[in-house]
Every structure is written in C-alpha cells, then in structure tokens.
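Q: Focus on the shape:
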Amino acid sequence: MKKNYFIALCLAAGFLTSCSLLSSSREKDMRPDYVKENMSLVWADEFDGDSAEPNPEFWDYNTGGGGWGNGERQYYTNDRTNSFVSDGTLKIVAHKNEKNKWTSARLITSFKKSFTYGYVEFRAKLPVEKGSWPALWMMPQFTTYGQWPRSGEIDVMEYATNFWGKKAYGTVHCKAGSGGNAVNSDYREISDVRKWHTYAVLWTEDSIKWYYDGEFLTEYKNPHNEKDAWQAWPYDQPFYIIMNVAMGGTLGMDIPEKLKSCQMEVDYVRVYQ
C-alpha cells in the first residue's frame, strides 16, 4: 500500500507539474512581447514624416457633426488645426473656435488599411479634461452582417473623465450585446493617462484579448455557436482603425465653459500578424 501510495503521489506530482508548465507556456504565448516576437509587423505608422499632414496613404477622415449618434458636440474636420504630425507624434486636437463651437478630428484607415486578426497596439497620451472622450478603436470595413451593432465594433481604449474618472475601458459590441449591455467590457484605472501608455488587442479566430501597458486586461471568447454565429462573433471580417477625440455626448457629458482645447497624442500604431 505504501509503495502504491508513493507511486500515486509521484504521478499526481508529475501531472501537476505538467499542468503548471502548460499553463506557464500558455501565459507566455499570450504575453505581448512574446506575441510580437512570433508575429510579423505587417503595418505601422510611426508618425515620423516630414509633413504635418498624417500620411494620406494610410489615413482618411470622418467629417461633419450632428452628434454622431451619441449627442456629441464636436464637428469633425480634416484641417491641420485639428490633426497634425510634429516631432514624431500625431496630435488630435479638439478646440473651441471663434464661433464658440467645438471642432476635432476623427482619423480612419477605411479602404486604405484594414485587417482580419492580429495584434494591434497604440502608444498614446490621452486628454483628461472634463467633457473629452478620446478613443482608439476599430470598425468593420464592410457591413457583412448588417448595420451597427450587427457587424461588430472593437474598442481598444475609451476614456471619459466625466463618466468613468480614471478608468480606461476595452469593449466589444455586437448584436448579442451592445451599448450599455456590451458582451464584454472591462477597465483599468490608470493614474495618469497624460503620460505614455500602450493600449492593445490580440485578435484571433478564438478570442479578443486586451492589454494595457503589456498587462492582460480582459478577454472575449468566440462562443463558436453554429446557429446564428455572427450575432455573438461578427469578428471574422476585416476591420479598420479609428482614432478620435469626441467632446460631450453620452460619455463626454458636460463641457466646462472655460475649457478651450484638449489633445490626444499618438506615438505609433502597429499591427502584427
């Protein structure tokens, strides 16, 4: 009995060690540094060009006002007063013009650069002024499954001081859950988003994982439902990249009357596959 018990203990110990090694291996495989080392950089913008204009081969603009479905106050432009490159970074500036109206910029890679799966990372400084609502996110290039939210949305990072305080959120929207009932949403409190931080997602056929400053935040798993699979997982299509600073609206909320401007600064955007 003692011999059998000893053998059983050894087998159990070996099993636990194997599980531990397997778990450790999986954790390593999911670390951003390991992921990037084992993927290829397929596209990036380092904003190192000589021109103040964001590279027109990469970036286009959503322009106009009307609230953008969220009661937002800003009017988006493609003017250099609202978006420009200098000293190796992109600046997106929301400011109140001489008519006391807010203008800003929303840069998009739509029909220029879109991706299906990969590791997408931004390095950015965010505005903290009340009323501001900066976001780094992705939308489907084609409405394969229908209009929003049916074809999905991937929010790499959203930050709204008025609504969330110091919480930066990563979220996904689809028909199975959107808006205030998103299928997956989580946050990390960041003491000072005015300093450089990285915000990223690792998007595969099986899941979307968020990483802030290289640390795992949350995960949304593909449920692999055979029936109406797109309702919970429309993320098998190409998505394009968006960077913007909204003002007011659902999450920006009230803007102080004395506020004149605020800025998001982006050091780079990189995509690995």
